[in-house]
């Protein structure tokens, strides 16, 4: 696949770093930005390169020549007059097949072969690298098509097909932090389609064409523009601050480490109570509020060698309290609020299913005659009422009313038996597993007695945990422990 690199920018915003050389020739860690790009391309086997040059282009030609020194073949297209970010593409007859397009002022280390495979699999006219960044509020954002679940219990499917392009000046309330990174694979078919309805926006220079506004955005309606999400390192050198950030990241080894050919590290984050304040079930964006200092914590992850990935259980879907679309809006608000303060998460993984909270309890008070079923029900009603006040609930309550001891006044002889449901026997667990199709080997038991622990073991749960031990002093401690496995 051929590679076209737009290397003709003047770099007026970064003139304080280097004013007398083309922006792609600004050195970072001892090498021009453009050289870093060429080395990355060479590693991926992409050696047929066209450099589009203009302002001080002779500096680039003198440095790179024909590219033989780097094991690549370099051709040059010289813009006598500025042609915008895409005008030159329409003047290159050699672009007969899909090609990779880069901006020469971008620090990038990407597994391009993976990107190319994505493009081919989707038979796209254009595939755009997209990623989250710390300033989405002034970036172009891509919105993709989400298909509804295809089966009961399924998840919505992101087709990666771009359906909306939001420029920074467009009005937007909440949005997913999916930024157009300025790296594309383009098919000649897209260029042909563009020219069918193209109206020059610059009559004095009709060959000046903007890639985003004249080529990509108008062709979204074709359904053949796709977003390739990746956490790999792509950062433009548009300002001195971003230049110094990229230089620091390169010195720390983060630029290379983020390439997906390398094993990644991640810090997984829960959502409710970790990122946002815990206030019962969050079912609309107005209920979502970031915890103080969360953005500072996530920014530290962003600057480290770790990915920041949210993994969250959202039973509000299974409960019918919230739709997938409403949940997406809640997450859009989260990403918007984080982005305002320079933080971002690399991905969000949601479990929409409802994990059952089931009470299994021995209640010999029935057999002893100390309590009727009606009174026991009232006790359980109070328990559920008090839990509900704090936003919690149990899905089912299984009771063993039997007791083998005899001789109590008012006892119920019909419940005096050697049953299979009184803990530590596993009957209640087995009944719950039957009712709710539970995989006991993937379940846990938390209780406060040895009988509870033994019952869980007899039922075949993965692990039984006892409150008040070194593993955890409270139920909350042990729940956190289970969720950490």
From TrEMBL:
**Where is it chiefly localized?**
cytoplasm
Question: What molecular functions are annotated in GO for this chain?
Answer: metal ion binding; phosphatase activity
Q: Name one Pfam family in it.
A: NTP_transferase
Biological process (GO) annotations held by this record are: carbohydrate metabolic process
Keywords recorded for this protein, A-Z = Carbohydrate metabolism, Cytoplasm, Hydrolase, Metal-binding
InterPro entries of this UniProt entry? HAD-like_sf, HAD-SF_hydro_IIIA, HAD_sf, Heptose_bisP_phosphatase, Histidinol-phos, NTP_transferase_dom, Nucleotide-diphossugar_trans
CDD domains xrefs: HAD_HisB-N, NTP_transferase
Residues in domain Nucleotidyl transferase? 2-251
Which subcellular locations apply to this protein?
Cytoplasm
Please give the GO cellular component terms listed in this UniProt entry: cytoplasm
- NCBIfam families, per database record: HAD-SF-IIIA, Histidinol-ppas
Q: Which family does the UniProt entry place this protein in?
A: Belongs to the GmhB family.
Query: This protein is called what?
Result: D,D-heptose 1,7-bisphosphate phosphatase
What is the source species?
Bacteroides ovatus
């Amino acid at each position: 696949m051929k590679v076209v690199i737009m290397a003709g920018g003047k770099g007026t915003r970064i003139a304080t770093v280097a004013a007398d050389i083309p922006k792609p020739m600004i050195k970072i860690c001892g090498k021009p930005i453009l050289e870093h790009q060429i080395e990355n391309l060479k590693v991926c086997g992409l050696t047929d390169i066209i450099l589009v040059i203009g302002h001080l282009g002779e500096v680039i030609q003198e440095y790179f020549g024909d590219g033989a020194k780097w094991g690549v073949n370099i051709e040059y297209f010289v813009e006598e007059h500025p042609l915008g970010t895409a005008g030159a593409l329409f003047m290159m007859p050699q672009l007969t097949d899909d090609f990779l397009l880069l901006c020469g002022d971008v620090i990038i280390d990407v597994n391009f072969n993976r990107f190319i495979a994505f493009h081919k699999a989707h038979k796209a006219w254009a595939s755009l690298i997209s990623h989250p960044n710390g300033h989405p509020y002034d970036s172009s954002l891509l919105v993709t098509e989400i298909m509804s679940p295809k089966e009961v219990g399924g998840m919505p499917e992101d087709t990666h097909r771009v359906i909306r392009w939001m420029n920074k000046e467009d009005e937007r309330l909440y949005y997913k932090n999916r930024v157009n990174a300025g790296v594309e694979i383009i098919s000649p078919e897209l260029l042909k389609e563009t020219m069918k309805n193209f109206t020059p926006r610059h009559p004095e220079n009709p060959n000046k064409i903007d890639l985003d506004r004249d080529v990509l955005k108008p062709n979204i309606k074709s359904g053949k523009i796709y977003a390739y999400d990746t956490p790999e390192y792509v950062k433009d050198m548009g300002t001195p601050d971003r230049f110094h950030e990229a230089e620091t990241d390169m010195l720390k080894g983060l630029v290379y480490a983020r390439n997906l050919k390398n094993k990644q590290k991640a810090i997984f984050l829960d959502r409710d109570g970790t990122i946002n304040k815990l206030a019962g079930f969050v079912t609309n964006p107005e209920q979502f509020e970031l915890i103080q200092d969360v953005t500072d914590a996530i920014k530290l992850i962003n600057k480290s060698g770790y990915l920041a990935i949210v993994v969250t259980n959202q039973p509000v879907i299974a409960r019918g309290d919230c739709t997938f679309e409403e949940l997406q809006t809640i997450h859009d608000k989260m990403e918007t609020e984080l982005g305002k303060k320079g933080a971002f998460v690399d991905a969000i993984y949601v479990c929409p299913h409802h994990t059952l909270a089931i009470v299994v309890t021995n209640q010999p008070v029935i057999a002893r005659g100390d309590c009727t079923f009606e009174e026991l029900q009232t006790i359980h009603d109070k328990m559920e009422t008090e839990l509900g006040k704090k936003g919690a609930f149990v899905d089912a309550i299984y009771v063993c009313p039997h007791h083998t001891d005899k001789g109590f006044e008012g006892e119920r002889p019909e419940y005096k038996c050697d049953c299979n449901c009184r803990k530590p026997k596993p009957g209640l667990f087995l009944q719950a597993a039957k009712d709710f199709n539970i995989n006991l080997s993937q379940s846990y038991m938390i209780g406060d007695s040895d009988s509870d622990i033994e019952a869980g073991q007899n039922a075949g749960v993965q692990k039984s945990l006892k409150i008040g031990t070194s593993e955890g002093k409270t139920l909350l401690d042990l729940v956190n422990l289970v969720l950490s496995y």
